[in-house]
Amino acid sequence: MSTLKAVRGTRDLLPPETALWNHIEATARAVFARYNFGEIRTPIFEDTALFARGVGEETDIVSKEMYTWEDRARAQSEKTQSLTLRPENTAGVVRAYIEHKLGETGQLQKLYYIGPQFRRERPQRGRYRQFSQIGAEVIGPASAGSESPLRDAEVLEMLATLLDELAIRGWTLKINSVGSASDRPAYIAKLREALKPVVGQMCEDCQRRADTNPLRVLDCKVPADQPIIETLPRIADSLDDASKAHFAAVCAALDKAGVPYVQDHRMVRGLDYYTRTTFEFTHGGQPSADATGTAPILGAQNALLGGGRYDGLSEALGGPKAPGIGFAMGEDRLVLMLQAIAASQTDLADAYIAPLGEAQNPAALELARELRRSGLRVELGDGSFRLKKSFETADKVARAIVLLGEDEVQSGILTVKEFARGVQSKVARADLAATLAAVTPTT
Ligand code: HAM
Fold it and tell me: How many angstroms separate the Cα of 441 from the Cα of each of 165, 253, 341?
């Protein structure tokens, strides 16, 4: 008899990897709590019409990737119904918002979720048919401030914080504005016009999209189509004054908060409900072991998370006006990132001791001896180095740097910086060995 295996695109998660999943989820829950989000859990399957109307009939997700079946009536009181395993959770959250009349509270609803989603995609590294998302939505009546650009900026700042707390560095935040219900139709009309003479030279997908969903042409990755796409009109040039001002305010708030981003005028995303701000956090990889370039961690799937604003979704689903913004992170991809970071850090020393002057060299040797005796792997700098050089060297060879100046020698209170988390703290000498031993790549 042939043995049964997990279905293509699905996986078993076993210890010790499950500990990493729990660590990611606990970190996300703790960050969401600080931003005053509460958890929502919606069903894993829904009426197919929810996704057709919410995500959009013409999207790849709805037209090709959904697990849909006719659910037979079991009693005369029931009807046979078309049901679908959720491919994403925003439509379900907005359905619940409408169903439970959450808008009537007059307050912003700040809801997060963690759970499985299902898409019939071609499986590859970082892309599965059952995958897990950690997502959140901010939705409510406009009078509660749901349309404010500050909501967009706050969500993006929260995501930067969450990635930092997970010790994921080197991400890129790409943002764009895809316009609103009032200015987008004019842009789509311009795009259709511009596509007419050139679409015949483009790939089959573009030829179909030019007809059904021209905005998605901007998303095409086929190399031969790129020069043509670059000649198409840009959405930024068709935004009306209100959309332009909204986007400028999001960017200004991000600048003020020190969250780095790049504008990507071609990022339209694969779901139809987006209006105005859209965004993605991507990760290109990490420096390769031979330091000659960058090694991709996520294969071709470099999007850690994506999201945006959906000011008309509630109305499209038959609900009240309820502007909103949200995101979903691919948890499977976060796990791959953290595993790669952990693997790259096994070669690092536990600490690099940086004496802040040649007079501190003997004390540094004494401290190194003490830490090595407690079992730690220690690299010792030299007091003749400039501070910048000490930091640069330490960042390459150790998980943490310990600064040893005259004050530190006298007071016995040392300054320690953990590189993965970017955290600097003061530690009493008696606690130093234990503190350094606790610095692991993912905790
Ligand atoms: P999405 O871009 O379709 O957006 O998915 C968000 C993230 O889920 C992706 O960036 C990726 O990390 C992960 N993901 C998607 N498909 C797969 C897959 N097959 N395998 C592994 N990971 C995957 C949404 O789903 C929107 N609901 C996000 C949103 C929330 N927009 C507003 N609110």
Answer: 11, 31, 7
Measured from the Cα of 309, ligand 1's closest atom is 32
- Res 343: pLDDT: 83
If one residue of 40, 151, 305 were mutated to test the ligand 1 pocket, choosing by the most ligand atoms within 8 A of its CB, it would be 305
Judge residue 296's burial from the number of C-beta atoms within 10 Å of its C-beta, 0-12 exposed, 13-18 middle, 19 or more buried: middle
Q: Given this model, what pLDDT does residue 297 score?
A: 73
Which region holds residue 269: left if phi is over 0, alpha if psi is between -120 and 50, else beta? left
pLDDT tens-digit readout, 303-349: 999 999 999 999 999 999 999 999 999 999 999 999 988 887 778 89
Render pLDDT for 292-301 as a digit per residue (tens, 0 to 9).
445 667 766 7
**Could you tell me the pTM of the whole model?**
0.83
Measured from the Cα of 269, ligand 1's closest atom is 2
Of 249, 196, 201, nearest to 227 by C-alpha is: 201
What is the three-state SS of 310-346?
Answer: CCCHHHHCCCCCCCEEEEEEEHHHHHHHHHHHHHHHC
pLDDT at residue number 173: 97
Pocket lining: 90 vs ligand 1, CB cutoff 6 Å:
yes
Ligand 1 centroid – CA 75 distance (Å): 37
Instruction: Output the CA 250–ligand 1 centroid distance in Å.
Output: 22
**Quick one: pLDDT at residue 421?**
81
| Other CB atoms within 10 Å distance of the CB of residue 398 | 24
Residue 289 confidence (pLDDT): 45
Taking CA atoms only, the protein residue closest to ligand 1 atom 13 is 330
Q: For residues 308 and 274, what is the distance between their CA atoms, to the nearest angstrom?
A: 6
Assess contact for 214 and 207: CB atoms under 8 A: no
* Tens digit of each residue's pLDDT (9 = 90 or more) over 162-221: 999 999 988 999 999 999 989 999 999 999 999 999 999 999 999 998 988 899 899 888
Residues of the chain where predicted confidence (pLDDT) is lower than 50: 287-293, 442-443
Residue 326 Cβ contacting ligand 1 at under 6 Å: yes
